């Protein structure tokens, strides 16, 4: 046991091989990715939902085009997406390796995923509730702010939680572009250097983080959910 | 207050089938301050009619006028402004779960841009008006069905509309809650002078609160008028439903006839009916029936047992006598027929 705990993965800090530093990098990549993803993905989900209901031909075309782009984004294997994105990453982030480059690729992968989930959350609002507020003379902006987002909020919190957990999984692959983090540590030290202690420690820590995120997400969803429990 | 002129709504064919004619040339006029019931089976077009009144559906043809505004011709901001003059109450209330009772009630005011202070004052008034004191801060999930519908009604009234449209407001409620909600709607009409259109498939709702009633069948009006006119017309389709038939008798050894009366000048009461029957049979007894006084006029659907003069054994009257009596009743506007048990 003490032999295990003296492994540099536990005792060092700030180095490439430190469990704690890499955990912080994983958390940084995950939460930065989610900040951008929520900022882009929620409006995109709203756009998908709103354009779906329209009867105007050009709006329906917008829906089809955006829907297609989202589907393409979701069907790319992440590892291929990272490589395919490299030229764009270089322009936007300035470099193709490191955590920030990884955040860009992670965001591109997570946005379509979240957007579809948000669209599904919005569809679950009974049409009668939306119509009731339309009949009060609500504008589209009022409808979005006062009905769509608040009524779908418990579901939206769940979707953000799910996307966050998927992103944690993807950060492991981000090691490929030198993203660092727990996945990369497990790969370098555990898998390639046959250090089972590092392997087990990173996996256990990843599981703990995922459980923590899920618990937090579920708790927030419960607090904002005023629907009858069935 | 509401005028429909040749209102027609055709829905496009659902994949390859025939187009659905939901409303077919509806002409209707609702006077201010009346409670107007619209009845009809499921699929008759009731909801489509109410959706046309709020501009949620555009009519295929015809005019829809509410409070002097031609709703069908409006778009965008003008339509939104016109909608604020119309309150709406739904079968399942359609409250927002994310809002408390008070926030739901004040929602139309929020949309209209009223200040917080104005809103709070008006919500307090409405809470009192519909009897929801103490429930303001509850979310819909914490309220009973009747309380939810009270919130729905208060919300419908929040922006002080001239017209309140109710689509099956009591269909999801139990009988005693239904009576409370109907009483509330009637009270509100008395106090606020508001015009109410109430859609329902329940005749009890019509009997309880409507001044006027319109029967919709397959997108057309088949009967329309004041409750009295409609109930008193024994030939019309609604009177049978408004004044229920007595049950078929068992164990009566006599000739039994059913009589519907109400729109005759020469036969105005059940006593007139018995007197006339007694000219043809010694004994005429009302054995079952419903007699209602609507607008100071008696409308009845009764069952008479007829026995010959001095009959020892139990028996009915002769065929000839019966035919004569039925003929005479018909001459006086009574719809009568023999009941064979
Ligand atoms: N949006 C729609 N598209 C196609 N058909 C519809 C639509 N809304 C209603 N209908 C049809 O119109 C008819 C009348 O429906 P509705 O007004 O809902 O009847 P009610 O409220 O009396 O039950 C029905 O045959 C229904 O199927
Ligand atoms: Mg209906």
From TrEMBL, chain A:
The entry's keywords: Cell membrane, Membrane, Transmembrane, Transmembrane helix, Transport
UniProt keyword annotation of Magnesium present: no
Protein name listed in UniProt: Methionine ABC transporter permease
One GO-annotated biological process of the protein: D-methionine transmembrane transport
Locations listed in the record: Cell membrane
Keyword Cell membrane annotated: yes
Topological type in the membrane: Multi-pass membrane protein
InterPro entries listed in its UniProt record: AA_ABC_Transporter_Permease, MetI-like, MetI-like_sf
Ranges where the ABC transmembrane type-1 domain occurs: 23-215
Ranges annotated as spanning the membrane: 20-49, 61-86, 92-115, 152-177, 197-217
PANTHER family: ABC TRANSPORTER PERMEASE (PTHR30450), D-METHIONINE TRANSPORT SYSTEM PERMEASE PROTEIN METI-RELATED (PTHR30450:SF1)
Similarity field: Belongs to the binding-protein-dependent transport system permease family.
CDD domains: TM_PBP2
Cellular component, GO, one term: plasma membrane
TrEMBL record, chain B:
Residue ranges annotated for the ABC transporter domain, each copy included: 2-243
A single cellular component GO annotation: plasma membrane
Keywords, in A-Z order: Amino-acid transport, ATP-binding, Cell membrane, Membrane, Nucleotide-binding, Translocase, Transport
InterPro entries: AAA+_ATPase (IPR003593), ABC_transporter-like_ATP-bd (IPR003439), ABC_transporter-like_CS (IPR017871), MetN_ABC (IPR041701), MetN_ABC_transporter-like (IPR050086), P-loop_NTPase (IPR027417)
GO biological process: amino acid transport
GO molecular function terms noted in the UniProt entry: ATP binding; ATP hydrolysis activity
Statement: the UniProt record of this protein carries the keyword Nucleotide-binding: yes
Entry function: Part of the ABC transporter FtsEX involved in cellular division. Has ATPase activity.
Quaternary data: Homodimer. Forms a membrane-associated complex with FtsX.
Assigned protein family: Belongs to the ABC transporter superfamily.
Name listed for the protein in its UniProt record: ABC transporter
């Amino acid at each position: 046991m003490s032999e295990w705990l003296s492994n540099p993965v536990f005792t060092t800090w700030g180095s490439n091989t430190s469990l704690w530093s890499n955990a912080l990098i994983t958390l940084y990549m995950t939460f930065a990715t989610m900040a951008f993803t929520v900022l882009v993905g929620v409006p995109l989900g709203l756009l998908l939902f709103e354009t779906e209901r329209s009867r105007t031909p050009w709006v329906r075309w917008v829906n089809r085009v955006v829907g297609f782009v989202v589907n393409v984004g979701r069907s790319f294997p992440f590892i291929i997406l990272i490589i395919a994105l490299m030229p764009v990453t270089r322009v936007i982030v300035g470099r193709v390796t490191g955590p920030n480059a990884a955040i860009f690729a992670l965001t591109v992968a997570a946005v379509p995923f979240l957007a579809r989930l948000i669209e599904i959350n919005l569809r679950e609002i009974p049409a009668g509730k939306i119509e009731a507020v339309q009949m009060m003379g609500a504008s589209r902006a009022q409808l979005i702010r006062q009905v769509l987002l608040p009524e779908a909020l418990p579901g939206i919190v769940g979707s953000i939680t799910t996307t966050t957990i998927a992103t944690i999984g993807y950060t492991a692959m981000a090691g490929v572009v030198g993203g660092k983090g727990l996945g990369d540590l497990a790969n370098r030290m555990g898998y390639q250097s046959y250090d089972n202690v590092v392997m087990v420690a990173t996996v256990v820590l990843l599981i703990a983080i995922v459980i923590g995120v899920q618990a937090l997400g579920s708790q927030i969803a419960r607090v904002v959910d005023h629907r009858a429990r069935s | 207050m509401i005028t429909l002129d040749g209102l027609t709504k055709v829905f496009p064919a659902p994949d390859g089938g025939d187009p659905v004619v939901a409303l077919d040339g509806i002409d209707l006029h609702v006077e201010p301050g009346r409670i107007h019931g619209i009845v009809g089976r499921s699929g008759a077009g009731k909801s489509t009619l109410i959706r046309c009144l709020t501009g949620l559906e555009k009519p295929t043809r015809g005019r829809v006028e509410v409070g002097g505004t031609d709703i069908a011709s409006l778009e965008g901001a003008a339509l939104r402004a016109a909608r604020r003059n119309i309150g709406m109450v739904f079968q399942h209330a359609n409250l927002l779960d994310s809002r408390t009772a008070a926030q739901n009630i004040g929602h139309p005011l929020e949309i209209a841009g009223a200040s917080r202070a104005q809103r709070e004052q008006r919500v307090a008034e409405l809470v009192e008006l519909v009897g929801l004191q103490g429930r303001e801060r509850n979310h819909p999930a914490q309220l009973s069905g009747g309380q939810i519908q009270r919130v729905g009604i208060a919300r419908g009234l929040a922006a002080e509309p001239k017209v309140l449209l109710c689509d099956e407001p009591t269909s999801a409620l139990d009988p005693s809650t239904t009576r409370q909600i109907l009483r509330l709607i009637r009270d509100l009409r008395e106090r606020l002078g508001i015009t109410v259109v109430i859609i329902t498939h329940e005749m009890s709702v019509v009997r309880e609160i409507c001044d006027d009633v319109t029967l919709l069948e397959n997108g057309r009006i088949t009967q329309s008028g004041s409750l009295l006119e409609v109930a008193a017309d024994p030939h019309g389709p609604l009177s049978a439903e408004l004044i229920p038939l007595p049950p078929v008798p068992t164990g009566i050894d006599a000739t039994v006839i059913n009589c519907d009366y109400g729109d005759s000048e020469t036969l105005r009461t059940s006593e007139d009916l018995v007197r006339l029957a007694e000219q043809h049979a010694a004994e005429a007894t009302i054995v079952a029936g419903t007699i209602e006084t609507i607008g100071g006029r008696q409308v009845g659907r009764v069952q008479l047992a007829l026995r010959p003069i001095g009959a020892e054994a139990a028996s009915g009257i002769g065929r000839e006598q019966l035919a004569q009596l039925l003929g005479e009743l018909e001459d006086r506007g009574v719809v009568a027929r023999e009941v064979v048990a």
